[in-house]
Amino acid sequence: MEWNFQTAEALTAALRAGDVTSVDLTDDAITRIERDDKAINAICVPDFDRARAAAREADEARARGEDRPLLGIPVTVKESYNVAGLTTTWGMPEHRDYMPAEDALQVSRLKDAGAVILGKTNVPVGLQDIQSRNDIYGTTNNPWDHSRTPGGSSGGSSAALAAGFGALSIGSDIGGSLRTPAHFCGIYAHKPTLGLLPSRGMVAPPAPALPVDLDLAVVGPMARSARDLTLLFDVMAGPDPLTYGMAHNLALPPARRERLSDFRVLILEDHPYIPTGSAVRAGLNRVADALVGSGARVERDSTLLPDLTEAAILYAQLWFSGVTGRFPAERYEQLVRYAATLSEDDRSLDAARMRGGAFSHRDWILANDRREAHRHGWRRFFAEFDVVVCPITPTPAFPHSRADLGERRIDIDGVEHRFLDQFVWAGLATMPGLPATAVPAGRSPEGLPVGVQLVGPMFEDRTPLRLAELLEQEIGGFRAPA
Questions:
Q1: Could you give the angle at the alpha carbon of 161 between the alpha carbons of 14 and 220, nearest 5°?
Q2: What pTM was estimated for this model as a whole?
Q3: Which of 83, 150, 202, 356 could form a disulfide with 159 if both were Cys (CB 3.0 to 4.6 A apart)?
Q4: Per residue in 397-410, pLDDT tens?
Q5: What residues have CB less than 8 Å from 462, skipping those under 6 apart?
Q6: What whole-number distance in Å separates Cα of residue 38 and Cα of residue 150?
Q7: For residue 119, which of 149, 151, 162, 75 has the smallest C-alpha distance?
Q8: Active site residue 154
Q9: Rounded to the nearest 5 degrees, what angle is found at the Cα of 232, between the Cα atoms of 192 and 450?
Q10: DSSP labels, 173-201
Q11: Catalytic residue among 177, 225, 321, 444
Q12: Residue 191 catalytic?
């Protein structure tokens, strides 16, 4: 039997039934990686010897009667997570030899759940692109079309899953870094509520692995099925033993709805800053048609929706404030001087990013106050709706580009737009800290995967996760590349 594209759920059933061993699954995965990854370049740091040893231990544990959530399941890990005995570089050449002494918390949770870690997956330099290439490990290609990117910054993980290299992976997200790769490769990913999943040990070298409260950034699961996504989310959930706080200890409520017909959904196609391409629009409409056909309440507009223009500006400011927070003093002062020259009438996102990058602490507090007002607006919205369905990016996967981020353009149905402006869709959920589940929604006319995101209420992650499961049953989910 071909095991490499089976879900973790199906593999667990086969392991429990004695139809296969973890050693068999691990050997099959390694054979596939050694055969196919030369063309894809998803697995940048293989760990095959330890994976085979872990698989043997998993089979021995199962023979003793043990049964953990991921016992014997082959998985991968984004390169940016610390794994003891493996290098962590974040794609930065100056850290090519950095090797942490202990596992990231989420890596420990994978191992405690019985997972077999095959290795680490490729990322862009500093995790700062929605492509995945660096001068240490090279470029990762999309399994659907090697001339295109699998996304970033968790692009190595999405490519690995789409290529059959392990059943699950873990990534991270601040600018769509879980959701965009899922969309580009036809898989599932979940950006959790801000602060819900602890991220200790997912840190740029050589910083120490300390518990931190990140602004905007999260860690999260990636899978080839919606049920697997929820399974991995549950493995990752729970407080960091080194921290305390409401968000980490909050018991998550169940999904609001159990049947597709009971959901109240807003379909959001358009954004004031960038158009939605026809292929993504078709994916949104495919999901909308399935919801309408199942009897769900589906709307295309609502006066309750927080202002998208202000939200995009806030996201740009808060994001770039974090990016420049550790700039050298001279470089930061140059940015402050440049931002002061911008016209007050310039409401472009480029200007918002520059102003945010030059923020003082007082500026950040004022922006954060506006964010809290948006969060309250979302609370009012989610009193009437359960989920927003909207784009992740305006187009399917685009061709590889080596141009600087600020110089790039994105082609949307034959018209060029500023590349960075497409991040407004990632920011819709990121800025207020809302959960968002990326799900497959069909194929483009060129045969590329198209995904959409299901944005849910804060701390109600199980609501978009449940809708993802129901939509998978209705319209299908992952398909292996031909």
A1: 100
A2: 0.98
A3: 150
A4: 999 999 999 999 99
A5: 230, 252, 253, 254, 255
A6: 15
A7: 75
A8: no
A9: 65
A10: ESSSTTHHHHHHHT-EEEEPPTTSS--TT
A11: 177
A12: no
Q: Distances in Å between the alpha carbon of 465 and those of 177, 193, 219?
A: 18, 12, 16
Cα 316 from Cα 351, distance rounded (Å): 9
Give dist(CA 433, CA 435) in Å, integer. 7
CATH topology of domain 260-309+372-473: Amidase signature (AS) enzymes (3.90.1300)
Does this chain's domain 8-249 share its CATH topology with 260-309+372-473? yes
Q: Are 91 and 125 in contact (CB under 8 A)?
A: yes
What are the tokens at 215?
A: 């602004």
Ranges of each domain in the chain: 8-249, 260-309+372-473, 310-371
User: Which of 188, 190, 91, 186 has the alpha carbon at shortest distance from 143?
Assistant: 186
Number of residues that make up the chain = 482
Q: Under a CB-based contact definition with an 8 Å cutoff, are residues 357 and 321 in contact?
A: yes
pLDDT digits (tens, 9 = 90+) for 365-385: 999 999 999 999 999 999 999
Q: Mapped to the 3 state alphabet, what secondary structure does 437-455 carry?
A: EEEEEEECCCCCEEEEEEE
pLDDT at 244 over 70: no
Distance (Å, whole) CA 175 – CA 223: 19
| DSSP output for 86-143 | S---TT-GGGTT---SS--HHHHHHHHTT-EEEEEE---GGG-SSS-EETTTEEPPBT
**12, 84 contact by CB (below 8 A):** no
At 232 the three-state DSSP class reads helix
CA distance 410 to 280: 14
What pLDDT does 213 receive? 84
Quick count: other Cβ atoms within 10 Å of Cβ 294? 16
In the residue annotation, 132 being an active-site residue is answered as: no
Work out the number of other CB atoms within 10 angstroms of the CB of residue 405: 13
Q: pLDDT-based confidence at 208, cuts 50/70/90?
A: very high
**Cα angle 51-57-60, degrees, rounded to a multiple of 5:** 145
Catalytic residue among 22, 78, 169, 172: 78
**What residues pair up with 76 in beta bridges, in sequence order?**
169
Q: Which CATH superfamily groups domain 8-249? A: Amidase signature (AS) domain (3.90.1300.10)
Catalytic residue among 80, 153, 154, 199: 153
